[in-house]
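Reading a protein record of the kind used here takes only a little practice. To see the layout at work, look at the sequence and tokens printed below.
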Amino acid sequence: MADSMSSPLPSLRDAHGEATRERLLDAAVALVDQGVEPTMRALAKAAGVGERTVYRYFESRDALVIAVAPRFVGRAGIPLCARFDELDDYARDLFTVFERNANLIETMLTSPWMSAPFRKTRRDNLLALRKLVDDAFGKAKASDRASATTSLRSMLSGSGWLYLRRSCQLENEAIIEHAQWLIAAVRARLENLAKAPR
């Protein structure tokens, strides 16, 4: 006969600890959404706890950033498409997500506390886009594919979106059109270079 209690309930202390941790993470998300850097002091105030409590759950701001990052998945970007010919739709979907979460994106891009996580993300995104370009235009020279990838990556990013939104004061639809124009130009250029004799 199987044991009717397959897994014991967590202790009240453990349940309280998990609830406090969730409360802190929710408060960190709310701060970022408001454009406020989630320092330990700001987080303690927003969550209504003492600063020592914050440090009990997150030993540093870096630990906090790592813990809160998964909560921004789907709000701070979308996965890259699988094929180059899907980039037009990807640009539209990506910039729509950015526009919907504009405060979050702007805070994440302009805050020094996000620089470390972004370094890895930026590199990973560049490599994924490079594979997309290589798969689609393998006959073009590697240096041309690398240049195309860099141009596309600078546009299809939060930084590119923020520059066009803030510095150029473009509406989101114009940013999407700009990205799609660049995608078409890169496609045409790589197709021509692939046909050219070496």
